[in-house]
Amino acid sequence: MINRHRTLLTAVTALVTLGTVAVAPARASAAAPVSVTFAATEDVFVSQAEPAKSFATATWLSVCGSGCGSATAGQRLALARFKVTGIPADAEDVKVTLDVVSARTTATTVSAREVTGSWTEAATTWNTRPTVGSEVAGSHTGFTAGATAKLDVSAAVDGDGTYDFALTGTSDTTTVLMSSRETGDRGPKLTVTYTPGSGDEQTSGPLPFTLPGTAALRASGKKVFAHYFTPYPVSLDNAAPENDYYARNYLKPEGESGKHAAYGGLLRDRPTGRAPLTGDYALADLKTEVKQAIAAGLDGFTVDILSVTSAHWTRVQNLVKAAEAVDPGFKIVLMPDTNGLASVDAATLAAAIAKLAGSKSVLRLADDRLVVAPFKAEGRSAAWWADWMKTMESAHGIKVALVPCFLDFGKNRDAFAPISYGFSNWGGRNPAANANLTANITTAHGLGKIWMQPVSVQDERPNQGVFDEAGNTENLRATWKGAIDGKADWVQLTTWNDYSENTQFAPSRNAGWTYLDINAYYLTCYKLGCPKITNDVAYLTHRLQPVAAAPAYAQTKLMKLRGGSTAARDTVEVLSMLTAAAKVSVTVGGTTQTYDAPAGVSARTFPLKPGTASATVTRNSATVAKVVSPYTISATPYVQDLHYRAASSDR
């Protein structure tokens, strides 16, 4: 997608469908600027004073505030749709303006805002209008009869795609635009000006692209949070990693006096180890995790609140403190867990949440409502949550924006709609379960709610005896595609650190930073448009064993494929992000195969075989990337281990 070289991006989200192989440039080229103009494909205005009337054939667009025409409820707004095509993937220094021609001279201000939901020129009235976003994409003040006014909407356009805008105003003076399509070439237009990229930029570093700065990423209205699970901090006892609690008790079948022996140990992965620390190591570790998340482009954590009294509650409080100390702009979303809080009454929960709400790092909306996103919200009824929200306001003076995270969205959305600001669900962990993610997003938007889309890597649960087939990185890419294609408002990475379910994105023993690095690419696509690949990088993912391999350890409980999951497979995947086409040689278990990989993002799988795995990328006889997995594949694993390992050529 296109790249923007601006000091500030407005907090607006783009209405665009993205592919998985889109790229964008790293720096401006010396080529001459190019301008392309796109006429509106549909436009209409609607009037609150005449709510059932269609103005589809009008030769003007009318915009004004609620007191328009001396009416007490006379607001008018205009809608315009544009289809943008042919913008090159390496476009740089991009500026986009929404151009309208005025019929009158006025001192009014017109703002462009994103539109959510479907509409057509012929059928739309005030009563059937789509939802208009609260964020301003661009505005213009002062109109001259017969002159073209330009609204800068650059931050809302990320390349080829369909864009819907609403033109709104607050003044009771009517702004009349000769910009209905019925007036011919004076209709609304979208003008895209850019400089073609040279295509030869190359950078070094662990990522295949230049990650935009924190300020630029946060300026986007789209937010990406990771689910923080308090049972698994960086360290549980501040011991050396080779002999800490994870090593002694969670990774060994005989750990914790053998309580996990039946399934070969509680965990298969763990946080990246570190040497013992002096002082308050628990708070220091949480600060480290906040810094890691910021470095990976995340906006914050959704923290799972399992208790309001135990060590888990202490970690929640410390996480809030850590975020505030490191960067209050890194936001913590409070997520009370109805499983862990089943015996906690409404007043007790309200008091606990209110205690956290005073922190600058806890997420609030622009109107100061506190965002609360309960996990398994349906564990309490909608009426219970409504009463709890009243308690929050009456007892603590805190208004709540509820964003329930459901296990079953379809069964609960209607009951919760009247009390909710938005919706989310916990989601699936295999490509088959994530084949139609846009439907939930569309449903939520149709109800006037934001949607927080779950994005996940994988899911294997030894203690529960179940696993999902993630298909190497296929599930990660599929869930991001759903978020992007469906225009999700927020994203929740599920999870940052739940090692018991093996869903973690956090830097870990088995994957290092690999999943966060891959995620950073798609996060940037989601927020700002896909960045240009400026560094050749190859990622290698595989399991340690064939799915059907029997472990040497006498496990009595083995993981089985979750019902409805994608079929289990034994594959090694090479995910490449390349500056230009290249040859990739892949060796698995002593067998080497070579293929031609295109520029951009591509994935190729190969049969899993015992032995080692590696991939080498060459171009013009020179090696540009090489990744060797540090994990040996075995047909006879010690314990059943279905967690996908991951390695990067640049880490």
| N-end to C-end Cα span | 26 Å
Rounded mean pLDDT score:
91
How many distinct helices? 11
Rg (CA only): 26 Å
Strand order of the largest sheet: 14-13-12-22-19-18-17
Please bin the fraction of helical residues: 10-25%
Largest sheet: 7 strands, parallel
Residues in β-strands, percent: 25-35%
Helices and strands: which structural class?
Answer: alpha/beta
Describe the structure.
- The chain has 651 residues and is of the alpha/beta class.
- 18% of the residues lie in helices and 28% in strands.
- The protein has 11 helices and 31 strands.
- A 7-stranded parallel beta sheet has the order 14-13-12-22-19-18-17. It has a 5-stranded antiparallel beta sheet with strand order 2-4-9-6-7, with no helix packed on it. Strands 1-11-5-8 form a 4-stranded antiparallel beta sheet, with no helix packed on it.
- Helix 4 (281-295) packs across helix 5 (311-326), helix 6 packs across helix 7 (382-396) and helix 10 (474-485) packs parallel to helix 11 (514-528).
- The longest helix has 16 residues, at 311-326.
- The chain starts with 33 loop residues before the first strand and ends with a strand.
- Residues 36-194 form the Carbohydrate-binding module family domain.
- InterPro entries: CBM96, Glyco_hydro_71.
- Keywords: Secreted, Signal.
- This is Endo-1,3-alpha-glucanase family glycosylhydrolase.
- Its main location: secreted.
